Amino acid sequence: MGLEVGMGALVWLLIPLAAAIGAGLWGSWANRTRKTRGDGPELDGYARFRAAMEKSHSGT
Predict the structure, then answer these.
(1) Is 44 exposed, middle or buried (0-12, 13-18, 19+ CB in 10 A)?
(2) What is the 3-state secondary structure (H, E, C) of the chain?
(3) pTM recorded for the entire structure
(4) Angle at CA 10, nearest 5°, toward 3 and 16?
(5) How many CA within 13 A on the CB side of residue 24?
(6) Rounded to whole angstroms, how far apart are CA atoms 53 and 41?
(7) Residues 33-57: pLDDT tens digits?
(8) What CA–CA distance (Å, rounded) separates 56 from 60?
(9) Rounded to the nearest 10 degrees, how much is the dihedral formed by the CA atoms of 28, 31, 37, 41?
(10) pLDDT band, residue 58 (cuts 50/70/90)
(11) What is the Cα–Cα distance from 1 to 8, expressed in whole angstroms?
């Protein structure tokens, strides 16, 4: 009976370990096609936003 309890506990401990390994593999697979991108598009959008906000306030 003691061996069965020990093996059961081992199986329950291996489930989260397998899940963590699976999550790590999925994360690395999901991130494989991402390309590093600079701040260029975000800064361009912010500049357009500021220009639009200045235009809307200049008429009042």
Answers:
(1) exposed
(2) CHHHHHHHHHHHHHHHHHHHHHHHHHHHHHCCCCCCCCCHHHHHHHHHHHHHHHHHHHCC
(3) 0.48
(4) 165
(5) 6
(6) 18
(7) 766 667 777 888 899 999 999 887 6
(8) 8
(9) -150
(10) low
(11) 11
CA angle 20, 24, 31 (to 5 degrees): 155
Which pLDDT score, from 0 to 100, does residue 37 have?
66
Tally the residues of the chain.
60
Please tell me the distance from the alpha carbon of residue 17 to that of residue 30, in angstroms, as a whole number. Answer: 20
